[in-house]
Q: What sequence folds into this?
């Protein structure tokens, strides 16, 4: 994979640390993952171990974006963004440099034809898989999981992702993550999520169902 030259305010020494990071990057299901062992350039540290220590101490923020691949830890691109934003809030003096590192990675990915092609093709494939999964659940559903009302004329079936696609894109095509809901209940839940500033998760759906006295045994 070729390294693309991109203008940035980061020093040459810092940028040199990105080369191996980019070389060892992996593309999985259209998403990019970077080895945590090569994050010292991104995290502005002098050693690889210091960078690993920073990652370990911030796992509560990025755990969902860390993946074990061939006995090595990799972090998803969005996980790096989350980590750098967090570090910038913790250390305002370095915030501009953290933003520069984030922008440098994004620019590299945007200018890398292999990444673009893989992401585009996988995105199309995932869209098809998601539609097929939703159609399968809808075809085999007779009633709303929360209200237990039967689907019929005037009561439309909507398919809901228990763990939202934004929160858990890896579950977007998993039929176990899909629930048939009445159209009005589905709309009501998403409005409730927005008004309460919550995420679309199993926990919040359970909370919503309990609050509205809907079925929670699912």
A:
């Amino acid at each position: 994979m070729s390294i693309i030259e991109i203008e940035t305010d980061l020093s040459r020494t810092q940028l040199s640390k990105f080369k191996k990071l980019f070389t060892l990057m992996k593309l999985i299901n259209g998403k990019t993952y970077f080895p945590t062992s090569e994050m010292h350039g991104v995290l502005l540290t002098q050693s690889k171990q210091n960078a690993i220590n920073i990652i370990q101490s911030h796992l509560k923020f990025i755990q969902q974006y860390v993946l074990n691949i061939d006995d090595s830890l990799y972090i998803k691109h969005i996980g790096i963004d989350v980590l750098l934003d967090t570090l910038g809030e913790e250390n305002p003096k370095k915030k501009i440099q953290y933003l520069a590192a984030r922008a440098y990675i994004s620019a590299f990915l945007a200018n890398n034809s292999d990444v673009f092609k893989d992401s585009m093709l996988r995105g199309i494939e995932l869209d098809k898989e998601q539609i097929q999964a939703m159609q399968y659940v809808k075809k085999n559903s007779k009633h709303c999981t929360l209200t237990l009302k039967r689907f019929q004329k005037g009561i439309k079936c909507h398919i809901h992702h228990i763990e939202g696609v934004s929160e858990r894109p890896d579950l977007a095509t998993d039929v176990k993550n899909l629930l048939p809901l009445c159209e009005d209940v589905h709309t009501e839940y998403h409005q409730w999520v927005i008004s309460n500033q919550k995420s679309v998760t199993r926990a919040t759906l359970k909370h919503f169902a309990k609050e509205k006295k809907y079925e929670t045994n699912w």
